[in-house]
Amino acid sequence: MRSPAAGCVALAVLVLTGCGSSAPKIAGPAVTTTQVGGAIIQSKPSAPPIALHDDRGRAIRLSDFRGKWVAVAFIYTHCPDVCPLIAQNLNRALAKAHDLRVVAVSVDPKGDTPAAVRSFIRARHLSGTFHYLIGSRAQLSPVWRAWHVATAPGPANTVSHSSFEVLVDPHGRERAYYDAQVTAADVLHDLKALGGTVSA
Question: For site-directed labelling of 178, which of 31, 41, 88, 137 has its Cα 20 to 30 A away?
Answer without folding.
Answer: 137
